[in-house]
Design brief:
The complex is a heterodimer. Chain A is α+β, with helices and mostly antiparallel strands. Chain A has three helices and six strands, in the order H-E-H-E-E-E-E-E-H. Chain A is elongated, with a radius of gyration of 19 Å. Chain B is of the alpha/beta class. Classes of the chains: A alpha+beta, B alpha/beta. Strand 6 of chain A pairs antiparallel with strand 5 of chain B.
């Protein structure tokens, strides 16, 4: 639902850290239970990155599986869905993984971004 | 304007102090004339002419995207391998850090803030009106109202007797921490009081955006069906309290209230559930006790 805004945020955060250098790659961790559609983010990224230091960047999406831990029996188990009960019957499950919404890392090239160079020339 | 969501780039998000009538553009923090919404009801607290020249917000908090609360990585820092910068940064970090700041601000002042979330029309405003009328002399209450448009809810709260700030998001579908930050500075809640945030009616988006509240309270009307919590698990999982409102209508409905309670518990086993009617008053005592208990805890 907020994939466009989230993508804008991603571009904004990475651009801040890139300090004018062209970004080659951005790696995201998106949990499968985070409530966001990873494909929409991919789709938006190309559009949002245009005109920024990320415009040549490749987006790497790492979708993280849900992992839960039952508070009753302490067993950890895979969670394909947000609401799941443990094999023991308890629904009191702590989610250990699957809700991430993170920029793990980005890679920049040694040159300054052409975008900024062009802007500076105006 | 919400950087996190980007949904209100064109529309202007504003904040109106219902009592004084001052309007602030949330993107710039500057006072502005209210655009468009000049339909004032019988509870009109605005003076014509919109005198608000004395309410500029000069707090020094920045609205640009650079305030991450951590240092910018430079290529020769210790996060790097070659040209790779390890960020490990939450995409919602900006909102989350502002929310934490709100949280600390509130804790420092011993003010309790709740984030009321629900579908549109569940009875959030009516419940607040009733709460203010019943508890207002015992507990200081202020309200931050969130709607796309109109000052209606803010005006209702003011008429009930509590100071209110109306945030109009324009096209935005949820409130964010920076809006709450500005609203709190305008409200200036006193120690030992409660701030209710009535979020935009929406069971999807507000769950992503921490405001700095003590707890989320999800409000559900008996007219919404038994399986609402199952349909919106993210929100109902995030709530500490679920209020089932409009129980006075149960004789007219086919709703299985036990099934509704079971749905909520399936999604959130530890959630507190209170059934009440803001209209008739049934069940309100339990809600008020819940509030009192939290207020007592906040002041320890």
């Amino acid at each position: 639902m907020h994939e466009l805004g989230i993508t804008r945020n991603i571009v904004s955060i990475v651009a801040d850290h890139a300090n004018g250098r062209a970004v080659k790659r951005v790696a995201l961790d998106i949990g499968k239970l985070a409530g966001l559609d990873a494909r929409s983010i991919s789709f938006c990224f190309d559009i949002v990155a245009q005109g920024t230091v990320l415009e040549k960047a490749v987006l790497e999406l790492n979708e993280i599986d849900g992992l839960g831990k039952c508070r009753s029996c302490e067993i950890e188990f895979a969670m394909p869905a947000l609401i799941m009960s443990c094999a023991c019957g308890s629904r009191d499950v702590e989610r250990l993984a699957g809700e991430e919404l993170k920029i793990r890392e980005f890679e920049y090239s040694d040159e300054a971004s052409q975008v900024l160079t062009n802007q500076a020339a105006c | 304007m919400c950087v996190d969501c980007g949904c209100s780039d064109q529309a202007k998000a504003t904040m109106t102090n219902i009592k004084i009538g001052s309007v602030v553009d949330l993107a710039t923090g500057l006072a502005t004339l209210a655009q468009g919404d000049h339909r004032h009801g019988p509870n009109d607290h605005h003076e014509h002419g919109h005198e608000h020249g004395h309410h500029h917000h000069d707090h020094g908090h920045s609205h640009d995207a650079h305030d991450h609360g951590h240092q910018h990585d430079h290529p020769h820092g210790d996060h790097n391998h070659g040209n790779i910068v390890s960020l490990q940064q939450s995409i919602l970090a900006k909102n989350d850090s502002l929310a934490e700041r709100n949280r600390a601000w509130l804790a420092g002042r011993e003010v309790l803030m709740f984030n009321l979330v629900s579908s549109p029309g569940s009875g959030k405003t009516s419940l607040l009106e009733r709460t203010i009328r019943d508890l207002g002399s015992e507990i200081g209450i202020t309200v931050i109202e969130g709607d796309q448009a109109t000052l209606n809810d803010g005006a209702r709260i003011a008429a009930a007797g509590a100071p209110s700030i109306q945030v109009n998001t324009g096209t935005g579908c949820h409130l964010e921490a920076d809006m709450i930050d500005q609203a709190l500075r305008e409200l200036k809640p006193r120690p030992g009081t409660v701030v209710f945030v009535e979020n935009v009616g929406n069971l999807v988006c507000p769950s992503l955006f921490d405001l700095g509240e003590r707890a989320k309270v999800a409000i559900l009307s008996v007219t919404e069906g038994e399986d609402k919590p199952l349909k919106y698990p993210h929100m109902f999982k995030a709530a500490e309290l679920v209020i089932v409102n409009k129980i006075d209508l149960l004789p007219h409905l086919d709703l299985d209230i036990d099934e509704l309670v079971a749905s909520a518990r399936a999604v959130n086993p530890n959630v507190v559930i209170i059934q009440l009617s803001a209209k008739t008053g049934e069940g309100l005592a339990e809600w008020y006790d819940w509030l009192r208990q939290h207020l007592a805890e906040a002041q320890e």
